[in-house]
Design brief:
Radius of gyration: 28 Å
Strand content: 15-25%
Helix content: 40-55%
Oligomer: single chain
CATH architecture of the largest domain: 3-Layer(aba) Sandwich
Number of helices: 13
Length: 350
């Protein structure tokens, strides 16, 4: 038999041809419209249960998968959500934000596409244009750190929810409740009996949303209890800076009764400085922090900290996006308290 190079075997073509809705209809003995209604979950049509089962058996026998691209061209809806972030995918918390978003999207029958811009406006514009061209229906616009943003012009008049960021106007936003988190950090110490000699560790520049909100919450809770901060040590949110700052604090006089550290990296530096000064946690100094990073459980004693609810935030953002009537404004998600071993009653009597 002569074989002509490059000419495909007709049998191979049949094997690789995509199964179509018309094939399912022929196998089930119904019209393609009936197959479409069954697969679309339409319950407003008079389709008997026996017919529905015939269609589903044909789908299974032929291993039929809907052509989603064709459907999106027809309906102008791809049932796809895009999570567009600045640098969130390279952050340690990205997994939970993405996981929460994925869970909510899947529960609503949507897929999730993730894009990262690196805060480059040109990259951002290019990625958004590409997503729109691919018939992406809805968008979550996310930030690695809570901040004010200007929403991209290309997303105007499109379904949009902001995640871990805020913008002017009525665009729905989902952020951690940092003010309540600050209140809860103070309440942890108050519940243990602390009323004085409480020092805040970490800088609180106006541009850092979390710093300002946490400080506001701490101050308000202490004030309501007739107390207040004994001082604030300004240092950047990094172990070495915190170590140096707390070491200077301890060298200047009596140690504080408790430290509120503005994140777990600050707490790591504080732990080291306290240890170098021969002080025990929590017997001599109690420590409470924010973030609930892996450091919190690696430190000894394990660190009491206020967690950022990334999983819940990701889920809430997508649920809001896919709701029939998303509420405008800011949704603040409560930050859970992780009680561990770094807080006890003050050694010095109140």
């Amino acid at each position: 038999m002569e074989v002509i190079a490059g000419r495909p075997d007709p049998n191979d073509a049949r094997r690789i041809r995509r199964v179509r809705m018309s094939d399912v209809a022929r196998r089930a003995g119904v019209s393609p419209t009936t197959v479409s209604f069954v697969l679309g979950g339409r319950d407003d049509m008079r389709i008997s249960e026996a017919t529905r089962q015939k269609v589903l058996r044909a789908v299974q026998d032929l291993d039929y998968h809907p052509n989603l691209m064709a459907r999106s061209l027809r309906t102008h809806e791809s049932r796809t959500v895009s999570l567009i972030s600045d640098t969130i995918l390279t952050e340690q918390y990205a997994g939970e934000l993405v996981q929460g978003s994925l869970m909510a999207a899947a529960e609503h029958g949507h897929s999730l596409v993730i894009a990262e811009t690196g805060r480059d406006p040109r990259v951002e514009a290019r990625e958004i244009d590409d997503l729109i061209a691919r018939q992406v229906d809805r968008f979550v616009y996310a930030s690695a750190s809570t901040r004010k943003v200007t929403t991209p012009r290309a997303l105007a008049n499109r379904p949009l929810v902001l995640l871990n960021c805020l913008a002017d106007g009525e665009t729905p936003s989902v952020v951690p409740d940092e003010v309540q988190g600050g209140r809860d950090a103070a309440q942890v110490l108050l519940a243990a009996g602390h009323r004085r000699d409480i020092v805040l560790i970490g800088e609180t520049p106006p541009r850092v949303f979390a710093a300002q909100a946490r400080l506001q919450g701490v101050r308000s809770a202490l004030a309501e209890a007739g107390s207040g901060l004994a001082g604030q040590v300004n240092c950047n949110w990094w172990p070495q800076a915190a170590f140096d700052a707390v070491r200077e604090l301890l060298a200047a006089g009596d140690p504080p009764a408790a430290l509120i550290c503005l994140n777990d990296r600050v707490a790591l530096g504080a732990y080291q400085a306290l240890g170098a000064a021969g002080l025990q946690i929590p017997d001599d100094v109690s420590v409470v922090s924010f973030d609930d990073s892996p450091l919190a459980t690696w430190l000894r004693p394990q660190l009491t900290t206020i967690a950022i609810p990334h999983l819940q935030m990701g889920r809430r953002a997508v649920e809001t996006l896919l709701s029939d009537v998303p509420e405008p404004g800011v949704q603040r998600i409560r930050m859970p308290v992780r009680h561990r071993a770094s807080v006890s009653a003050p050694r010095r009597p109140i």
